[in-house]
From TrEMBL:
Keyword Acyltransferase: yes
EC numbers on record: 2.3.1.178
Involved pathway(s): Amine and polyamine biosynthesis; ectoine biosynthesis; L-ectoine from L-aspartate 4-semialdehyde: step 2/3
Name of the gene encoding the protein in the UniProt record: ectA
UniProt-recorded name of the protein: L-2,4-diaminobutyric acid acetyltransferase
Pfam families, per database record: Acetyltransf_1 (PF00583)
A Gene Ontology biological process term: ectoine biosynthetic process
UniProt entry keywords in alphabetical sequence: Acyltransferase, Transferase
Keyword flag Acyltransferase: yes
Residue segments, region Disordered: 150-173
Source organism per UniProt: Alteribacillus bidgolensis
Species classification: Bacteria, Bacillati, Bacillota, Bacilli, Bacillales
């Protein structure tokens, strides 16, 4: 007889008490830019409505941060998506974004924007999968050339927009 472990994940908007754990999660992921711990505290307090955490047995194992476009409030800019190594390969990143879109706070979102560097194949695959699941188009444009960043260490960032997002899948719950 083979025993399989069943993961019971919960999804919720973060609060300021989650900032430290979110920072620690992002720190463990090499391809993500690690921001200051203060940044994650601010995200978890002031941008909570456009962020989501996933927990497994009380531990934060996933995080998506975003904010509404300042001029187009129906566009959600997804800043970072972080998934613990132990949870990868199970669709958690896609589920996190879908749960965020289904939340009351994001029910009017019509498009998602994000920036991805060319070498970040995992993020590109995530957003392609999300676009397919939502039945939406994904369009790429150059956002920041590598010259826009200080030093010589940062790749160019391309903007990907996924739209239109219709209904946000709330009826699927």
């Amino acid at each position: 007889m083979t025993l399989t472990s069943i993961k019971t994940r919960t999804f919720r908007h973060p609060n300021i008490n989650d900032g430290k754990k979110v920072w620690e999660l992002v720190r463990e992921i090499d391809v993500l830019d690690l921001n200051s711990s203060y940044y994650y505290l601010i995200l978890c307090e002031y941008f909570s409505n456009t962020c989501m955490v996933a927990e497994n047995e009380g531990e934060i194992v996933g995080f998506v941060s975003g904010f509404r476009h300042p001029e187009h409030h129906d566009i959600l800019f997804v800043w970072q998506v972080a998934v613990a190594k132990s949870e990868r390969g199970e669709g958690l990143a896609t589920t996190l974004i879908q749960k965020l879109l289904k939340s009351d706070e994001c029910s009017d979102i019509k498009a998602i924007q994000t920036t991805i560097s060319p070498s970040n194949k995992a993020s590109l695959a995530l957003f392609r999968k999300l676009s397919e699941h939502l039945g939406a188009n994904m369009v790429k444009t150059l956002r920041f050339s590598s010259d826009a960043f200080p030093g010589n260490e940062h790749e160019a960032e391309q903007t990907y927009e996924i739209s239109p997002i219709l209904g946000n899948g709330k009826e699927e719950d």
